[in-house]
Amino acid sequence: MQDDLPVSDDRFGVAGVQLAWLSPDQQEMELILAAASGAKFVGMDIDWQRIEPEPGHFNWIELDKIVALAEKHNLNLVPMLLYTPRWASSAAFAPLDSHRSPPNRYEDYRNYVYAVVNRYKPFGDSSLTADGYVIKD
Predict the structure, then answer these.
(1) How many structural domains compose the chain?
(2) Residue 110 located in a structural domain
(3) Could you give the 3-state DSSP secondary structure of residue 62?
(4) Dihedral angle, C-alpha 61, 65, 66, 69, nearest 10 °
(5) Do 44 and 78 meet the contact criterion of CB atoms below 8 Å apart?
(6) What is the pTM of this model?
(7) Cα 10–chain centre separation
């Protein structure tokens, strides 16, 4: 039975937080609360449209602030790279659903994922990874 399984002390806590839509003060409070709850990992949506509002033009300011806050509170981010910007969507003609549709060109999505990974990998393109903090999940 499920209840008879041994419980490991190394079991980690996970919190899911929609940080990108909160004010900076609210973002920090959410991470403080997540850390206080015992969470070690925070699952977070990363909206492609917010990172790459136009093809090839990346805006890292908001995500960099969240990454810095997570590091400050000893939390590991588990990103979920989601949504399709209207400019890349196969349903760009349907503004309310364009973010849920697959991209017209999968190489656009590949380039977005590649840019995020290269920014936050160990010793990546971001100065935030210089001290060893990275997004690894």
Answers:
(1) 1
(2) yes
(3) helix
(4) 170
(5) yes
(6) 0.80
(7) 24
Which of 5-14, 71-80, 101-110 comes out lowest in average pLDDT? 5-14
DSSP 3-state of 89: strand
Query: What span, in angstroms and rounded, lies between the C-alpha atoms of 76 and 95?
Result: 33
Does residue 9 fall inside a structural domain? no
Give pLDDT tens digits for 19-55. Answer: 877 888 998 999 999 899 888 888 888 999 999 999 9
Angstrom distance (rounded) from CA 74 to CA 35: 7
pLDDT score of 109: 95
CATH code of the domain covering residue 94: 3.20.20.80
Please give the Cα distance from 137 to 10 (Å, whole number).
17
Distance (Å, whole) CA 58 – CA 103: 17
56 — alpha (psi -120 to 50), left (phi > 0) or beta?
left
- Mention every residue, 6+ apart, whose C-beta is less than 8 A from residue 133: 67, 71
Q: Which domain holds residue 69?
A: 14-129
Considering the domain boundaries, does residue 5 fall inside one? Answer: no
Tell me the residue type at 14: V
